[in-house]
Amino acid sequence: MTKRRAVVKNSSKHILFLLASGQANTRTELAHLTGSPLSTISDTVQSLIRQGLVSDEGSVCFSGGRPRQVLAISHSDEFALVADIGRHHVRAGIARYGGSTELVRTSQFDTFKGPEPGLQALDSIFESVLSQASGSFRSIGIALPSPVNLDTGSPNQPATMPGWDGYPVRRHFEEHFGVPVTVDNDANLLAVGESSFRRLSHSNLIAVKVGTGIGAGVIVGGNLYHGAWNEAGDITHVRVVDSNPLRCSCGQMGCLETVASGYALVRTLSEAGIAVSQTMDVVDLARRDVPEVVSALRRAGAYLGQVLAVSVNFFNPEAVYIGGIFSTLKPFISAVQQEIRQRCHPLVMKGLAIERTQSGIDAEFIGAGVFALQQALRNDMQTFMRQ
Ligand SMILES: [Zn+2]
User: Fold this and answer.
1) Ligand 1 centre and the CA of 307: distance in Å?
2) Segments of the chain with pLDDT less than 50
3) Ligand 1 center to 75 CA (angstroms)
4) What is the 238 CA–ligand 1 centroid distance (Å)?
5) What's the pLDDT at 65?
6) Of 54, 73, 92, at which residue does a domain stop?
7) Alpha-carbon span 26 to 287, nearest angstrom
8) Residues with beta carbon < 5 A to ion ligand 1?
9) pLDDT tens-digit map of 100-148
10) How far is the CA of 251 from the centre of ligand 1 (A)?
11) What is the chain's mean pLDDT, rounded?
12) What spacing in Å lies between the alpha carbon of 243 and ligand 1's midpoint?
């Protein structure tokens, strides 16, 4: 392949991925996000339209401004099946190009029972969704609450998923449904989903998911950053206290998870005599302003803020987005914001947004759908390049 053709191929792929994720849908937005001149974008878009990969959807007025030609991925009836697997529930449904979702439902799911019962149940849920979906089924996207080996599509040393370590999740769905399957960590996909949902707002950010566990995803230049061994953003095992006698799921002492996660709060509050057995109990009591629970959430938020402050000073992102069920609790969010503001240098605080995610409960779902549909496009591109 000539160098020229490689350049064209890479820029085309980038544009396709931005349109597929919903981060952009006009030539001007594509120029903004890629940093390329508008004339170059127009040429590449024209080429993609000729190839049948992109369609021109006509002109639309944005906020009373000049009308702009809106672009979309062709074959907009195509969709991905998506599942966001949590420790106790799974959300499953379909995702379409541009970040939209349909037929999403929540079902019980117990990761502690091992992979096979759960994934077989998910097969049935997917079959049910497929029977109601319209359009062309292209791919599957799975979000897992664990580190993921991207080479194999398997959980990688998951802390609270007995029997799942190395289990071939990707192969399970490839063999059952015969389509490409993408598998990634849920906090990574939360970052992708939020980035897609907010479109042009920020391209360098940290997105944190706080619920029963804690995880973070890092977006650099608009793309998810996985790191050398796919562990970027895994802040949960940063040691934050030396005196905490509670052992973490990783075997170490004093990790962030032992003081700031839902799992940690359930443990410390129940030891203090408060009737909580799962993260949602903590959330319910916090919403009723039970003083001990509110105080515990403030302490948890402060610990998370300490770790994020180091990340912000180091990475200088434009935004820190907080997602997961704890992000709905004001005492928690306020403590995170306060700690970051107190500990960060003014130069990195300038313009830094520290906010709740806007994409809500479906952030990881949207992110998993974006990745799955981008994989389908990648296959289309490979087919085209071979022609
Ligand atoms: Zn740990």
Assistant:
1) 14
2) 1-8
3) 45
4) 7
5) 66
6) 73
7) 42
8) 237, 248, 250, 252, 255
9) 899 999 999 988 889 999 999 999 999 999 999 999 999 999 999 999 9
10) 6
11) 89
12) 14
- pLDDT for 229: 87
Strand order in the sheet with 136-144: 101-108, 89-96, 78-85, 136-144, 181-185
**What is the per-residue burial (b if ≥16 Cβ within 10 Å, else e) of 75-91?**
eeebbbbbbbbbbeebb
Same domain, 33 and 171: no
**Gap between the Cα atoms of 106 and 20, Å rounded:** 25
> What pLDDT score was predicted for residue 62?
62
Cα(17) to ligand 1 centroid in Å equals 35
Instruction: Tell me, yes or no, whether 348 and 217 share the same domain.
Output: yes
Q: Looking at residue 32, which CATH number applies to its domain?
A: 1.10.10.10
**Ligand 1 centroid to 313 CA: how many Å?**
23
148 shares its domain with 160: yes
SS (H, E, C) the chain: CCHHHHHHHHHHHHHHHHHHHCCCCEHHHHHHHHCCCHHHHHHHHHHHHHCCCEEEEEEEECCCCCEEEEEEECCCCEEEEEEEECCCEEEEEEEECCCCEEEEEEEECCHHHCHHHHHHHHHHHHHHHHHHCCCEEEEEEEEECCCEECCCCEECCCCCCCCCCCCCHHHHHHHHHCCCEEEEEHHHHHHHHHHHHHCCCCCCEEEEEECCCEEEEEEECCEECCCCCCCCCCHHHCECCCCCCCECCCCCECECHHHHCHHHHHHHHHHCCCCCCCHHHHHHHHHCCCHHHHHHHHHHHHHHHHHHHHHHHHHCCCEEEEECHHHHCHHHHHHHHHHHHHHCCHHHHCCCEEEECCCHHHHHHHHHHHHHHHHHHHHHHHHHHHC
Residues of the domain holding 242: 191-362
Residue 195 Cα to ligand 1 middle (Å) = 28
Same domain assignment for residues 8 and 91: no
